[in-house]
Write a structure and sequence with these properties.
The structure is a homodimer. Chain A is an alpha/beta fold and about 350 residues long. Chain A has a single domain (about 1-340), classed as TIM Barrel (Alpha-Beta Barrel). Chain A is about 50% helix and about 10% strand. In chain A, helix 9 packs across helix 10 (about 160-170), helix 9 (about 145-155) packs across helix 11 and helix 11 packs across helix 12. The interface of A and B includes residues 164 and 288 of A.
């Protein structure tokens, strides 16, 4: 039963038989079976059809041999439930009407996710039943800063001009927006756990576009409030502040059980900065999966060594797997991680 | 004559009457006079017409009151001189034929920049004459890793899939490519100094997409060789490894006189990491220039205070000024920086 438990054990910093691994975006375009489903339905239809979302969630579990599933969905789902009109068109999300001021924020609702996000919750229930205890299922949401960047800038951004202008210069609408996102996200992730998620990850994909002082001022507080608000659920909480390697003294105060590391962070340094009460997850450069398997092995083993012998490391990429990745390279990575033993541990 | 000397003095970590400031992309789209020129000629024509390049280079000098000019050009100029066919079409550079293997690298030449980059050198000569000693003129080039990402991936990239595959997995073509870029860039920057550049900046815009180990393995060596190769020129060398805040122990060994800091770096921490033999340049978030001037002042003064009282700070943004920036906000920033005095220094 080790595969069923090693992810959650590592989140709790308990000893494991092998380092657990899952891969961000493991249900995605690099898998032929996923592409076959996407030939029939749009991205949004896939998110909104519980049976199909469950199907693609399950694909990588046996095909790669990973130690956790993560529900297939999108970080914009709760924003849509709040009233944002979002389109995808096979690319990044775009808002019909970006939230730029107080009236825009006031127009947003704090939804009841058990009603408005029912597709995701149903997908979790179906997946959980299909998994039948093989591996745990991870739920997720965006952290408030990251969700707000999409809602305020209206889509993907390079400069984050509008979201930064609001966050740095307009505390009234900004704090109201964060309040609504925090309240929505706590309810949404609680409902995911209720439906069967055994852990939840908060994605702060755009943490790294902020200075350390601004991260502390505008991104960290909302994330921390969500983590605190989920404290009674009894499941591990993972927080992934991408690009925040220079702010790990602040990140360490977020309250999460596990901190996700992108690949620009030295994992040994991160473990020292975070102390022994926080587990880490990461952190192979996704582009490394285009190298030949021997080089993948060399790079994965360096991370495993650098992560140290103390419990509390979940292997992952430092960001989502790239669409053109050869699936057999992802499988090879999983095998390397599961087969790794420290020099002082002997053969597997 | 203080405006004429304070930039170079700060590069040399000599005391100055006021912190010098220039702004990356200060000759650019946010300035109405620049847009007026661009209505008549394409970006590439502008780069290739010395009189026009000099004209836009000079525009911000008096309009903003900055303490240095930087020659208007593009980092792809030496790549084109090496044989790459590059188009812009009012957007980022795209290569007709990306350099993906040994034969692609072999097809590149090491040009004589005094012939093939003559437009830039002429623009420097004209600008230098027009400046007439008011402020120094900065020349520039891309660092090898950054230039290679464009040449190998064929344009702007999110994943840097091909450049990383070559840099991490194919040392033969990779090292040959870096050798050619290093040789070209040393000759090119030397020619810029010969033509009148009083300092040169090496842009490593994509340093931050590498892990610390990969930065050390594939980006830093080429940058260091260029800096060493320019050592006898007697002008300050500035190196801007964007996103490399977590690798400053390595960056500190590059040999440059000044390290550019993006805004995700705590400037006080950077100064401690770099020691007192290296000056720093930076590091206001470019998005801060959309805030109201009082908030711009607050943020600029925090950076000035955090930079410390030791000589060797050049104020700049942490990346290029954004196209929609109000020019009067850039002017306000320049005034704040020039007017700043530490609490223990008394009024200006």
């Amino acid at each position: 039963m080790s595969r069923a438990t090693r992810f959650l054990d590592a989140c709790r910093r308990r000893p494991v038989d092998a380092t657990p691994i899952w891969i961000m975006r493991q249900a995605g375009r690099y898998l032929p079976d996923y592409r076959a489903v996407r030939e029939r339905v749009s991205f949004l239809e896939l998110c909104n059809t519980p049976e199909l979302a469950a199907e693609v969630t399950l694909q990588p579990v046996d095909q790669l041999g990973v130690d956790a599933a993560i529900i297939f969905s999108d970080i914009m789902v709760p924003a849509m439930a709040m009233g944002a009109e979002v389109s995808f068109d096979d690319g990044p999300p775009r808002l019909a009407t970006p939230v730029r001021d107080r009236s825009g924020v006031d127009a947003l609702v704090v939804p009841d996710p058990t009603e408005t996000c029912r597709s995701v919750l149903d997908a979790i229930r179906i997946t959980r039943a299909e998994l039948d205890g093989r591996v745990p299922l991870i739920g997720f949401a965006a952290a408030p800063w990251t969700l707000a960047t999409y809602m305020v800038d209206g889509g993907p951004s390079k400069a984050f001009r509008f979201s930064k202008a609001m966050a740095f210069g307009a505390p009234d609408p900004w704090n109201r927006l964060v309040d609504k996102i925090v309240e929505t996200t706590i309810a949404y992730l609680s409902a995911q756990v209720e439906a069967g998620a055994g852990a939840v990850q908060l994605f702060d994909t755009w943490a790294g576009v902020l200075s350390p002082a601004d991260y502390e001022g505008v991104a960290l507080p909302g994330a921390r409030r969500i983590i605190e608000g989920l404290g009674d659920l009894g499941v591990p909480i993972l927080y992934f502040p991408r690009g925040a390697g220079q702010m790990f003294d602040r990140v360490a105060t977020c309250g999460a059980d596990v901190i996700g590391l992108d690949w620009t962070i030295d994992i040994a340094k991160a473990r020292r900065a975070l102390g022994d009460r926080i587990a880490v997850q990461g952190n192979l450069d996704p582009a490394a999966l285009f190298l030949d398997p021997l080089e993948i092995e060399r790079r994965a083993e360096r991370i495993l060594r650098d992560a140290g012998a103390a419990p509390g490391h979940i292997f992952n990429l430092g960001h989502g797997i790239l669409p053109q990745t050869p699936p057999e390279h992802a499988r090879a990575l999983v095998d390397v991680v599961h087969g790794f033993r420290r020099a002082d541990e002997g053969a597997p």
